[in-house]
Amino acid sequence: MLYFSRMQVRFYLGVGEPDAITSTWVHESIHARQPFGSDHEYSTWTGYEEGMTEGLTHRLLISQGVTQVDVSFPFYVTAYEEIARMLGIDVVTLWRGLWRHQSGSVRASFISIVNLTLIQSRRDILTMRQRERLQLATDTLFSTHHRNDRPDRRAIADLLKRVVQ
Ligand SMILES: [Zn+2]
Question: How far does residue 126's CA lie from ligand 1's centre (Å)?
Answer without folding.
Answer: 29
